[in-house]
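Tutorial, part two.
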Amino acid sequence: MSLSPQELASFNDNGFLVRKAFATAEEVQEMKEEMAKLLEGWDPEDSVDSVFTTGRDQHVNNEYFLGSADHIRFFLEPGAVNENGKIRSDIPKSELVNKVGHSLHVDDPVFHKYSNSRKVLEMVRDLGYQDPVLPQSMYIFKQPLIGGAVTSHQDSSFLHTTPRQTCLGMWLALDPATLENGCLWVRPGSHKEPLRRLFARTHEGGDPHFKDINMDSKGSNRRFIPVEVDAGDLVVFPGTVDHLSLPNTSPKQRHTYQLHLVEGPEAGITWSKENWLQYPAGKPFPSLKA
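Running the prediction step on this input gives:
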């Protein structure tokens, strides 16, 4: 499963690579079935204040979200709550949820097994990581017909490290991802640009908000391109890559499991105290060890 010289060159030049059939059909099915079980045990009323949105004006003051770093929590689609602030009863429970995060890779045995598999570790090592740690995982649903757009962003805006950016996204398709159901789009070469914004806490325990840091930097002239993939395919990209997805207007779902890692302290890297995602004091991020 080692990366070829051609794959490494593409990753370094374009800022992403696609590894076909990275997960087996059995692994994909196991993860989807496990999420179905988690949904069965979920009470949407527990998540009524957890509507998930993206965009330039995103402002989070929800303790349910801020406290999800080391828990498995469910986040609703914007249309899941009616004008009275109540969960809509005309939508199946499985279609109310936008995503589940952010500790599946720790607290669920099925997702832990994949996240800490030898093939994940080997790929990360091939990309030069010395002390990979896992701060975050997410299961994204991209619901049929109502799955919203995810605006252009860099993951390192949310998962910031110093003295350099080390975030790596591992985007695993659990369904075919196409132009019709809202596949990933990336802007090749954008990983060579500076980080534009930080999603930062204003103070200890404060509400995170976007902070502009390099909005005037000149970006690449290369345009966004779609990355259509099959179930089991993996898209890998650094946290500085500009990427987005369009709404899912099709009748087909587009589930993904997304794992984010960064370099740890043994590689001389520090997790920013400004990041929204913070473990309790004294609790380190889990190391990636197969």
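The chain has six helices and 15 strands. In part three we will examine how such features are distributed along the chain.
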